[in-house]
Specification:
Elements: H1 2-8, H2 11-15, H3 18-24, H4 43-46, H5 52-55, E1 63-64, E2 75-78, E3 82-88, E4 93-96, E5 102-105, E6 108-118, E7 124-125, E8 128-129, E9 132-139, E10 145-154, H6 163-166, E11 175-182, E12 194-200, E13 208-215, E14 219-221, H7 223-233
Parallel strand pairs: 1-7, 10-13, 10-14
Antiparallel strand pairs: 2-5, 3-4, 3-11, 4-6, 5-6, 6-9, 7-8, 9-10, 12-13
Bound molecules: zinc ion (ZN).
């Protein structure tokens, strides 16, 4: 039953973390990890429904070559402010987004579900990882997923977008609702260039068919901010995957 529930779950629920917990039950919370026996090299064998992690040919993240072409897919960001719902699901820090924000990809509307973080970055550029990556996860009415990735490099100053919630990150399994609002459009330049490719969830079940857009412009983050994340969660980046027949860009 449990296996069926996981295999049948929408990619949305699994990537949303909290949904995965409620379906899978407490004993499954740490079933997959970023280190050791249940780490990324073995994800595909942990559950029948995780097979794509091992055998998929369009997996994420990937390394972006320096000569990759910028995406010419038409993106229209219509992001609104959200209340601050901050979740530590044991795998990442995630902010669940209020309804009403969308990204249009060639005219197809995807709603913002949540954004979350990885240390170090999952996508690399010419083999080089950044200290932090943010993923903004969107879902269309037909279930299709689109994810925007934003890379952060070290700077002396704290990142001002992160600051309002980063200073009060919840412990594993906990959620905090903070006062005020935040707009993830303020975290990066939505009008900037980006690399596009077809990939997957970067966590089990590694489902494919995800439209990825990795912003070419990098943001900045302080070493103290990255250290605060690592103190709670450790490293949480899946290694880069083979591009196989995919084109990066376009
Ligand atoms: Zn992610």
């Amino acid at each position: 039953m449990l296996r069926d529930a996981i295999a049948g779950a929408s990619a949305l629920a699994v990537i949303a973390g909290a949904g995965f917990w409620s379906m899978a039950g407490a004993q499954e919370v740490h079933h997959w990890t970023y280190q050791g026996e249940a780490g990324p090299a073995n994800w595909g064998e942990l559950e029948e429904g995780y097979a794509a992690c091992a055998v998929g040919l369009e997996q994420s993240p990937i390394d972006i070559p320096a000569d990759a072409a910028m995406s010419e897919v038409d993106l229209v960001f219509d992001y609104r402010p959200t209340a601050l719902h901050v979740v530590n699901n044991g795998h990442t820090i995630q902010l669940d987004y209020d309804a009403g924000s969308t990204l249009a990809v060639d005219g197809k509307a995807y709603s913002v579900l949540q954004f979350h973080f990885h240390v170090p970055s999952e996508h690399t550029v010419e083999g080089v990882a950044s200290p932090l990556e943010m993923h903004i996860v969107h879902r269309a009415d037909d279930g299709a997923l689109a994810v925007v990735g934003v890379l952060f490099d070290f700077a002396a100053a704290d990142n001002g977008f992160l600051a309002p919630f980063w200073s009060d990150l919840p412990a594993a399994g906990e959620t905090v609702d903070l006062p005020g609002e935040i707009n993830v459009a303020d975290a990066f330049d939505p009008a900037g260039g980006r690399y596009g490719y077809r990939g997957s969830l970067t966590t089990p079940p590694c489902s494919e068919g995800v439209s990825w857009f990795v912003m070419a412009g990098h943001q900045s983050v302080s070493t103290a901010q990255v250290a605060a994340f690592v103190a709670l969660l450790g490293m949480n980046a899946r290694p880069t995957q083979e591009p196989n027949a995919r084109q990066i860009g376009g």
